[in-house]
Amino acid sequence: MLSEIAKKKISELKTKFPERKSAILPAMHMVLEEVGFYNKDILKQVAGLLGLSEMEVAETVSFYTYFPKEGVGKYHIQVCTNLSCMLLGAEGLVSYLEEKLKIKVGETTPDGIFTLSAVECLGSCGTAPMMQVNQIYYENLNRAKIDQIIDDLKMKK
Amino acid sequence: MVTLTIDGKQIIVEEGTTILKAAEKLGIEIPTFCYHDQLETVGACRMCLVEVEKIPKLQVACATVVSEGMVVRTDSPQVVNARKGVLEFLLINHPLDCPVCDKGGECELQNLVFKYGSDKSRFVEGKRRYIVDPKSKYDDLAIGPHIIRNMNRCIQCRKCVRFINEIAGEDDLGTFKRGSKTEINILPDIPIDNPYSGNVTEICPVGALTSKSFRYKIRVWQTEAIPTVCPQCADGCNIRIWKKDERIYRITSRRNDEVDEGFLCDKGRFGFDFVNHPDRLKNPLIKKNGKLSEAPWDETIKFVTSSFMKIKGETGSDSLAGVGSGKVTNEDNYLFQKFFRSVIGTNNIDHRVDSKNLLPSPDTQIRNKYFGMKNTINQIANSKLILVLGCDLEKEHPIINLRVIKARRKGSSILVANPVSTRLNRFAQNGLLYKQRTETDFLNGVLREIIETKQYDNAKSGFSSSEIEDLRRKVSSSDSLKALQTTGIGAENIKSFVNALVKAESIIILCGAEIISNPKNVEIINSLYDLIRLTGHQDKDNSGVNLLWKHSNSQGTLDCGILPDRLPGYVRISGKPGLNFNLMLEAVNQGKIKAMYIMGSDPLSEYPDREYVKSTLGKLEILLVQDILITETAKIANVILPGASFAEKEGTFTNVEGRVQKLNKAFDPLADSKADGQIICLLAQAMGHEFEYRTPKDIFKELTGVSPIYSGMDWETLGLSKKQGKVK
Amino acid sequence: MEKILFKYIDFPEQYRIDTYIKNGGYRGLPKALEELSPVQIIETVKKSGLRGRGGAGFPTGLKWGFVPKDSQKPKFLLCNADEGEPGTFKDRSLIENNPHQLIEGMIIASYAIGAHKAFIYIRGEFAFGAKRLSEAIGECYKNGYLGKNILGSGFDLDLDVYRGAGAYVCGEETSLMESIEGERANPRLKPPFPASVGLYKNPTVINNVETLSNISHIVLNGGEWFANIGMPKSTGTKIFSLSGHVNKPGNYELPMGITVRELIFEHGGGIKDDRKLKAVIPGGVSTPILTPASLDVKMDFESLYEAGSLLGSGATIVMDETSCIVKAAYRISKFFEHESCGKCVPCREGTRWIRLILERIENGKGREEDIELLRDICTNIIAKTVCPLGDAAAVPIMSSIEKFRDEYEYHIKNKKCMVDLGTRFV
User: Given an 8 Å threshold on Cβ–Cβ distance, is C249 in contact with A120?
Assistant: First the structure.
C-alpha cells in the first residue's frame, strides 16, 4: 500500500529519535499523507519498517483519534461541535451537511467521496462555526459557504 | 532511616520506602488494585489514596515516598470516602455477574466492596459493554489457548499487560483505545500464547482474565488448596494444588521470592492432566504368557522378591541393578539406594538414563564443578552478564529464564550461544550459533582471544604465569585455530563476545542439557571455569558456572546417592563402585545382570540409543518398572508396580539450586497405587528387612543423619524460612 | 498599550525570517548568546515574573532553575503547542503568523537550560501551523540560528516539529512526553518532575507557545520592563481568545488585569444582537463558569482565583441569555469523556458517568436526585486523579450547578431547556 518513497522515508525515521517508538506518530502522519487512512496491514508494514512489534505500533496508534481508518471518504469533513462552535450554530451546520450529503454523522457517502464527522475543538473558536476537510480549515461558515465548498470539492473529486 | 507516623503509630523505615510498604510493616493494610511489587508502579487505580499531613490532596500510598516526620492517616473519613468513591466508579459498569464468575470467592473487587462498598447503586444508566458477539449476551472471548477474556469485568489495572511486557518480555497482550473505551486485547488473530500466559489469570484482581481449564468446573470455595512443589522441571516453583476429593482442579503459584517470585510457566500451571489421567496405573501388573495382567499386591510383592532372592542366590548381588529417577522424591530415592545397598547388597545404582556421557560424581567436601548450580536463582538477576550456553532456557528452565529477562531489564548483558536459535536470543546482546558439538573449539577461541589480547585479569585470576602460558599454548595451537573454523563463528563475533565478557562486573554462566550430556562435557566445564578465572570472577558473588539439571529432583537424586560410586551426601564408596547405567546395559548384554528395578525412569524414551536399550532390557529375566503411567519401558517389563503421583505423596524435592522443598499430599494414591517409598518398604520387608517408617518424615530424618550435606535440616520448617533446607 | 506578541501579527509575511528580522526580530537571541550567561537569563526571566501561559501559571524562571546544572544527561526543551482547550486559539495564531518569535524564544530558553535538542509538540490538526513552523525552522538552519555553533556562539541546538494526533491529554506535560516517546499518552506520576526525569528520562523543561514567545522580548527589554506590565503577581500581557456570543470574537493581547467587562464590551464589541449576557467561562472549558456579577473581576491569575474561577489559557467563552447552561455542561462533559486517557479510575469512569447523567437531563429524563449525584461524582473525581484532566472535567460541572442550579432544576422539572435556543446557523 505504501510507495517505495514513503517506505524509505519511514525507515529513515527509525534513527531520527533516541527511541524507535518515537517514530510511530511521524510515520503515521506520512501514512495519512500518502494513503489517507490506515488498516491492519499498514500498521504491520509500519512496524516492520521501524523495527517495532506490531503490538507496539497498534497500541500507540489506537490511543489517538486523528488518523482515520480504512473506509474514510476522500474528503473527511470534521465539524467542530465543541462549546464555542455549538453556541454559534455547529449543530445547524452538521444538520445542513447531513441534509446536503444525504448521510448521517459518522457515515460516508456511497461514492466514497465524503465522510462526515462531528469532532472536538479544533482551536478555531474565534471563527466559529468551522470545520476541517482533510488538513484544511474552513471558518466562519454559513449555508452559502458550505454550498460553495461542497460544490468545489465535488468538482475536484 | 526515616521516622514517620501512620495512624498514630510510629515506625522507622529505610529512605526511599513508600507509604504502602511502611504501612505494611506496621500491619496496616492499604487496599490496592494496580499495585504489584514486581511491576513498575503506575498509581492508576487510586484505591490507595491516603491523607498526608500538610499536603492538601490525598496521596497514592503506592508511589509516595516517606519523609522525616511525615504523618499519614489511612483510616480518616476522607480516606474511607475516597475508597468508597473509587469502588463505586469501578462497580458502575461492572456486570456484577459474580454468581457465574470464576473469580468469585477470591476476587479482590468483591472483597473490597464487601469491606467498603455501598449496598445501594446510584447508577441508573446503561452499563458499558464490550460486545464480542452481537448475537450473544455474553462477552467472553478466548484470547489464547489458556485464557478467556471478559472485558466487562475488567477494572483496567493493566497488571496483565504490564506482567506480559515487564516480566515475561512478551507483547502478545496489549492496551487499545483510550478513556472509557480502553480495552485489553490481543492483535487480531494473534493469540496470547507465550509460556507464561497463565500468570495473567492469577495476577488479574477480578474475573476479566480466567483460565480455560478451570472455568465453570467448580467454585473456588469448594476446593482445598494444598501447598506443594511443581514437578515439571528442576526450578522447583512453589505451587498450590486446588483439589476436591481426588481431583486437581487447578494449580496456582505459592510465591517464594527465592525461587519463583510468584510466577509459574504454563506447563507447571496447566500441565497436571497426568495426575487424573484415565491411563494411570491402578494395580500391579505381572506379565504372564507374554501378557500383562492385573495381580494383587501381595502376590506381586512375593513374585518380585522371590525372583530377586533367587537371582541373588544363584549369581550374586551384582546380578541386580536399580535405576532411580530425578522425578521422585528424596525419600523415595534414599530408600531405593538403601534397598539396593543393604537388602540386595549391590552398588549397581544410577539414575542417569538420558546420556552416554556422564559427569564425574561430586565429592562431599567441596561443591565442585559437577555439583549443579554454584549460584542461587536469585543471584542470576543480579549478575551483570549472563552467558547461556547449550541451553534452550525458556523450554528447559522457564522460571530461571524469567530471572535472565529480569537481569536484562535491569541493564545486564545477555550472551547466548547455542547450536540453534532460542527465544531468549531476542534479548541477547550477542546471540551466537555454533555448529553442534563444537563447544570446546568455540570456547578455546574465546579463551585465546582473552589471552592473546591480554584482556585477562592477572591479579584476580590467581593463574601463575606458567599456567597462563600452558593455557595459551593449548588454545593457540594450530589445531585449535583450525577447529575454530569449524564452529561457524567468525573472528569478529568472538571479539565482540569477549569484549562483553571482559567488561562485565560479574558473570553467571548457565549450561543446559546440551552441555551436561555433551561428549566433551568435562572439557567444556573446565573451559568455562578457566573463563571465570581469567576474567577475575572466581569465588565472587553473582558469578560462576551453573549446570542446570533437568528433572524436578535431579539434584536430590544425586544428593541421595543414586550413583554407583557415592552414598547419600556424596560419601565415597569404600570398596569397588557399582555400575553406572551405560555399564549396566553392557553387563546385561554379557549376561551378568539379570534383574533390573526401574523406578520413575523411562530409558526407552530418554536414552540416546532407543533400539539398543530396548533390546538390552529385553534380555533381562526380571524387568520391574515402577511408574504412574505405562511408559515405553513399562511396556516391555515383566512386572509393573503402580506408583503415586507428586500430588499423592509427601516428601521433598531438591531443586536445581539445592533448595530442599516439601511436597504435601493433596489426596490418597489413586485406586490401588502406592507411594514409591511405601512400595520399596513392602519389598524390603518381604525380604526380611525392617524398613519401618511411619511417614516420609521418618525417612527424611534418617537421611539427615546419614547425609552430611542434609544434616541439621528440619522437616517441620522445610521451605518456610530462607536459610532452611538449602544444601550446604 | 503597545502589543508585545501580537505587534506584527497581521503584518504581511511576518512568518518569513527576513520580515521578522526587519521588524526587530532575532535581536534578543544575539544579546542572550553574547552578553548573558544561562544563569543571567534565568534570573532575567525570574525578575520578569513571567508565568506559564498554558493554564497553570507556574513561574517560568523558577521552572528553568529546577534543571540540574551538573547533570551529565542531555537536556530537552519542549514547546507545548498542543492547544486543545476548547475556547483557545491563541497559540495557533502565534505559530501561523509569527513562528520565528517562538523559535527565537526557544533558542534562548534552550541556551538557558543547557538543552541542545528541542521539540515543538503541535497538535495534529494544526497541519498548516506545523508546515509554517517547519519552513521557519528550515530558514533558521540556513541562516545560522539553529544547528551547530549558533551565530558563532559555540552553542548548538536542533529543533524539530513533532505532530500530535488528536489527544487533548497530551497538553498535560508528562502525557506529551509519553506521546513523543511513542507511547500511549498516559500521564506519569509526579514526582519525579520533568526537570529531573522528563523526555527519555532526561531533564526537561516544557513551556507553552505564548510563554516562549515572550522570551526574546524579555531578554531584549529586561525583566523589569515586563514586570511593570500588568499586575504585580501576574505580569506582562496575555492573549485572550474571545469566542461565543460577542460581536468581535478573536484574540486580544491585553495587559494582565483588565476586567472581564473591558474584554467583552470594549474589545469584543459587546454581546451579539444586543442580547443580555448570561455567563462567561474565563479560561477555557475546564475553568469554573462566572455570572454577570463577576464582570468587574480582573483577568489575572490571582483575581480570577479569588472570584472562584481560573485564568487558565485565557480563553473567554461568552454565553448570552439564549444559552442553555445544562446543554453547555453536557457538551463539556462529552469532551472530557472523549479526552480522558483512561489510566486512572475516577477520571475514566467519572467522566463517562457525568456525561450519561447530563445527557439524560438534556433529553428530558432527569431526576431530582441527579443534581446531588452529579456533585458527588465531581467530588469523587476532584483532586483524586493522576493528572489535572480529572479536575478539568469535574470543576466546570460543579460550578455550573453552583451558579445555575435553577436551570438544572427547570430542566429536570419541565423536561426542556429554560431558554429557546433556536438555530444560529444561517
Answer: no
- Name chain B contacts of C341, Cβ cutoff 8 Å: 178-179
CA distance C107 to C205: 13
CB contacts, 8 Å: C167 with chain B: 178
Is pLDDT of B726 > 80? no
Asked whether residue A70 is domain-assigned, the answer is no
Chain B residues with CB under 8 Å of C352 CB are 93, 128, 179-180
Report how far residue C354's alpha carbon sits from residue C329's, in angstroms, rounded to the nearest whole number: 10
Taking residue C110's Cβ as centre, other Cβ atoms within 10 Å add up to 25
Asked whether this complex has an ipTM greater than 0.95, the answer is yes
The whole-chain average pLDDT of chain A stands at: 96
With contact defined as 3+ CB pairs under 8 Å, the chains touching C are A, B
Average pLDDT over residues B584-590: 98
Q: Where residue C423 falls among pLDDT bands split at 50, 70, 90?
A: confident
Does residue A112 form part of some domain? yes
Phi, psi of C304 (to 5 degrees): -70, -35
Contact C356 B90 (CB under 8 A): no
Which three cell numbers mark C332?
463539556
Q: Check residue B369 and give its pLDDT.
A: 79
Q: Which residues of A touch C87 (CB under 8 A)?
A: 83-84, 121, 125
> Residues C275-303: pLDDT tens digits?
999 999 999 999 999 999 999 999 999 99
Which contiguous run of DSSP H or E holds residue A91? helix A90-101
Residues B351 and B386 in one domain: no
Number of alpha carbons in the 13 Å side-chain half-sphere of residue A25: 29
Q: Is B456 exposed, middle or buried, given 0-12, 13-18 or 19+ CB atoms closer than 10 A?
A: buried
CATH number reported for the structural domain that contains residue B604 in this entry: 3.40.50.740
Question: Are residues B176 and A62, on separate chains, in Cβ contact within 8 Å?
Answer: yes
**Within the 320-349 window of chain C, which residues sit less than 8 Å (CB to CB) from chain A?**
323, 327-328, 331-332, 335, 338-339, 341
Q: What is the pLDDT of residue B723?
A: 47
Burial class (CB in 10 A: 0-12, 13-18, 19+), C290: buried
> Do B11 and B158 sit in the same domain of this protein?
no
Residues of chain B above pLDDT 90, percent = 90
Number of domains in chain B: 4
Q: φ and ψ at C237, to 5 degrees? A: -100, 170
Structural domain range at position B478: 377-547
Determine the Cα–Cα distance for residues C325 and C291; give it in Å rounded to an integer: 11
- The A residues from 52 to 91 touching C (CB cutoff 8 Å) are 56, 59-60, 62-67, 81-84, 86-91
The fraction of chain B above a pLDDT of 70, given in percent, is 98
Which spans in A16-89 are helix H?
24-34, 40-50, 54-63, 83-87
Cβ-Cβ contacts under 8 Å, A120 against chain B: none
- CA dist B577 and B346 (Å) reads 9
**Which chains are adjacent to chain B, needing at least 3 Cβ pairs under 8 Å?**
A, C
Q: Which pLDDT does position B457 carry in this prediction?
A: 84
